[in-house]
Amino acid sequence: MEGLSSETRAETPRVYQPRKPERTAFYQLLEQHFDDYVYVYEERFEPKAGPLRAVVRPTVEAFFGCGRLHGGFARLRCPSCRTEHLVAFSCPTRNFCSSCQAKRSVLFAEKLREQILQPVAHRHFVFTIPKALRSLFERERPLLSLLSQSAYESIREIFQELFQRKDLRPGAVNSIQTFGSFAANFHPHIHGLFSEGVFTPEGEFLPLPVPATSLLANIEERFRHLLLKRLRRAERLSDTFLNKLLGWNPSGFSVHAAQLVFDDEPDRLERLARYLTRAPLGVERVCINEEGGVEVTTPLQPGTRETVLRLDPLDWIHAICQQIPARGQHLSRYYG
User: Fold this and answer.
1) CB-based contacts of 193: which residues, under 8 Å, 6+ apart?
2) Is the model's pTM score more than 0.85?
3) Which of 183, 193, 273, 299 could form a disulfide with 281 if both were Cys (CB 3.0 to 4.6 A apart)?
4) Which domain range does residue 68 map to?
5) Residue 59 sits in the same domain as residue 142
6) Residue 11 covered by a domain
């Protein structure tokens, strides 16, 4: 290929190259330590995280066959030259295999742009909760739906009050995420794409008269009250703890909304949609040190420095397995 011109290289067909996931530290750590993790789970992790969830073992086992011929494959043959390739099947896991999750994110972004979102400006919102509440959502995953509902209702109510009309609705797509930068702790929060305005029952779009960022303090306070009210109604908070949380200053809740995407920026909208549904941890960020421990590198972001987190292999496996959603649980919610 070195002696070919740029035109010839562009016309030369690419040869299929298998991913070879078994060569990654991510795969090797799971292959070497997952059975030990299951063996010690009850004593080491169950007191805090609850019993080992039924979805964990089949997810990891499916991942072991992802991109490898022993997990199943398709046989492809060119009808003209009769050249054949064996293409290994992918695994059906969610929020675990970074390769499969990347494919799912691309399809999700295309669907949003082409079928779901109206051609209006949308703003990226992020809703977070105090550390004191995170373990509650970790042990009871159905409560994550309350987190998404409260995020949408807080913005809907504030927008309605701004227009002084109860029949208006913002359009929104919420993504439930349970991981932070390292994917090493359970950190439930909401990433949402909200229309920078509201829709009437007739379908007319009314832009906000002020930027949504000027309403963040009101949205944050409404989000806090709605979520705590729902948790109390579900009998997951006592009156004493509820009043304690309401009295915190700062509250521990936060709402950010820095990014605004206009209707003439489809590529930027797709990139943001892929970010909302990205995998908890990319395989390239994991390595094994000389002592056999795990080192996870944070992704570089503007204004930040690359840092490395060092973990025991079993603690690392527990962290990534906690990001696996329950069977049938919808991580993307549509409103409006």
Assistant:
1) 112, 117, 122, 123, 124, 125, 172, 173, 261, 272, 273, 276
2) yes
3) 183
4) 18-88
5) no
6) no
